[in-house]
């Protein structure tokens, strides 16, 4: 009788340099081997000047990027079911949605 292996126990730990912060700008660069997500904060004090201060870059394999896409879609769908549709219209004068 073959035994069914138990799934591994997953232990989440934070590294010493772990940080949690807010991003309202995400840029994505793609090449054959990976996806690069560049997180930053965007500010606009006047209509003709947008400043993006990038603070973290993360490389993902194509497989992890696709898994993230699925997780994000699932979570956005659940959010919209609970709170209503998320609109991507830029604020007046912003002209930039990222």
Question: Could you explain how this protein is built, in words?
Answer:
The structure is a single chain. With 98 residues, this protein is α+β, with helices and mostly antiparallel strands. The protein has a domain at 25-83. The protein contains 1 helix and 3 strands. The chain has one helix at residues 62-83, and strands at 25-30, 35-46, 49-60. Strands 1-2-3 form a 3-stranded antiparallel β-sheet. The protein is extended, with a radius of gyration of 19 Å. The termini are far apart.
Brief overview:
With 98 residues, the chain is of the alpha+beta class. The protein has one helix spanning 62-83, and strands at residues 25-30, 35-46, 49-60. It has a three-stranded antiparallel beta sheet.
Strand arrangement, major sheet: 1-2-3
Task: Compute the average pLDDT.
Answer: 90
Query: Helix-strand pattern, N to C?
Result: EEEH
Structural class: alpha+beta
Oligomerization state? single chain
% residues in beta strands: 25-35%
**Overall radius of gyration:** 19 Å
- Low confidence ranges: none
Cα-to-Cα separation, first versus last residue: 55 Å
Number of helices: 1
Count of individual beta strands? 3
Largest sheet: 3 strands, antiparallel
In one word, what is the shape? extended
- Helix content, binned percent: 10-25%
What are the SSEs and their pairings?
Elements: E1 25-30, E2 35-46, E3 49-60, H1 62-83
Antiparallel strand pairs: 1-2, 2-3
Defining key terms:
single chain; 98 residues; alpha+beta; 3-stranded antiparallel β-sheet; 1 helix; 3 strands; 22% helix; extended
């Amino acid at each position: 009788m073959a035994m069914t292996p138990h799934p591994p126990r997953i232990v989440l730990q934070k590294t010493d340099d772990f940080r949690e912060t807010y991003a309202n700008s995400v840029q994505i660069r793609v090449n054959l081997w990976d996806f690069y997500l560049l997180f930053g904060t965007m500010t606009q004090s006047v209509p003709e000047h947008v400043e993006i201060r990038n603070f973290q870059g993360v490389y993902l394999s194509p497989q992890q990027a696709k898994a993230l896409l699925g997780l994000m879609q699932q979570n956005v769908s659940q959010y919209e079911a609970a709170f209503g549709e998320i609109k991507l219209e830029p604020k007046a004068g912003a002209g930039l949605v990222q």
